[in-house]
Design a protein that fits this description.
The protein is built from 2 helices and 6 strands. It is α+β, with helices and mostly antiparallel strands and 112 residues long. It has one domain. The strands form 3 sheets. It has a two-stranded antiparallel sheet.
Length: 112
């Protein structure tokens, strides 16, 4: 999730959004696609990797092993270090930042 505050005639305006870089219908699993990087580059907003671990859950038999929490389950949410993508980033810098984001997401998925 990323958020920012910008000035407007009516006072400060809060801008926020959430992007899921890997959806169940697209793949491959745990691979960050170009869209989230491009969006961060254009908007100037940081990417904050996050993950969650569920206590009691059931897994759907699908490509991504989608998890559904069971009643009274505990959920632990982990947030990683914000990643900023410079507007003038080169392809090499984008690749490095994508790897950093992917590493943060994988670490969260493993519960690190």
């Amino acid at each position: 999730m990323s958020s920012s505050t910008a000035s407007s005639p009516g006072g400060p305006k809060r801008i926020s959004g959430v992007v899921v870089p890997n959806t169940p219908s697209r793949g491959p699993r745990y691979v960050v696609q170009d869209g989230v990087m491009a969006l961060a580059q254009v908007t100037g907003l940081p990417i904050v990797p996050y993950s969650f671990q569920l206590g009691w859950k059931t897994r759907v038999k699908s490509r991504d092993s989608f998890q559904i929490p069971l009643p009274f389950s505990h959920c632990e949410v982990t947030f990683g270090k914000p990643i900023r993508v410079p507007r003038e980033a080169t392809d090499a810098q984008l690749a490095q930042l994508r790897e950093e984001l992917q590493g943060g997401l994988l670490a969260g998925a493993r519960g690190e």
